[in-house]
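Model: Ready when you are.
Researcher: Fold this.
Model:
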Amino acid sequence: GGVAYKDAWEFRPPGIFWANYLAFLLFGRAELSVRLLDLIGLAAGSAALFVLLRDRFASPRAGILASLSYPLIYVPCGHWVTSQCESFQAPLLLWSLALWPLADDRAPSLKHCYLSGFLSGAAVLFKTPAIFFPLLLLVDRLLLDRRLGKEGRQPPLWATAGGIVSLPLAM
């Protein structure tokens, strides 16, 4: 009957609790509410896979195949593996990758860099080992900027870093 992080130690980050709270706010206080939010996340993850593969591999067919395969792999696992931290984290990480600028993009969108960082930072709030994902984004950005000869001018790097830390700092 206590409050996590106040009355008892809770080793999980607060992301799953926020997701459950959002589900209860949107759909009412029932188990079905969390499952509905999980299905919305599944659809968002499928959409991200489509965009990711369509853009990275220049293949709409690969995007369609991946976006259709994701629910076919996930749904048969049953109710005991759905609505877990990872199922809410996956769409955040997939969209973070889908929005990440391509390697040959000489003028990456600051908005995309920030959103990619923000989504990967939000994913860390579900499972802390995901911290390596935003760190890899920063390393990738540093290497891309170095290759393009932009070591001194790195707005995309700072936009990404700002996105990563903005939600955790707002807590």
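Researcher: Now this one.
Model:
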Amino acid sequence: GCPARRPPLRPSPRPVAGALAWFASAATVAAQEPRYRSCDELERALDESAAVAGSRLRRLEHPGLAAAGVRAYEVATPGPIESSQRPTLLVLGGLDGISLSGSEAAVACARALGAAASPLAAEVSVVVVPCASRAALERYLADQRGDGGDDAPVDLDRDGVADEDGRGALD
């Protein structure tokens, strides 16, 4: 006969409520930083936290992420369900060069979850990307006037040529 099938995993609302509580506390910690940090400084802080004995935080090595210049971290917590089978909570910071506190909050959340046992991290896989758009954050930090974009060429009129049109061009 056929092997018995397991019912699909259904996420409970409890991990979501726990995640929201963690974000609220992480945002409070991030607001206490004296200044915003660069992507290198944020990632160095996470690497230092991961190096502490007993930390549940580790850097994820993935060729696609490395090629894009993105570093991701996982809070590896043992639990009743294999990590790859749990729902995943993806924490993205630094989506643009304007919302700087998101990167700080992502780092604070990762450090807090990685430092101590957490019921949340035992029920869900937590992946943290502190700088999703490194170029946008670095550009803002360089001149404090970032527009939230990065340096990727843009083909606004979709004619196959990038960055040739000025504002208001109609061709």
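Researcher: Key takeaway?
Model: The beta strands are 57-60, 72-75, 88-92, 125-129.
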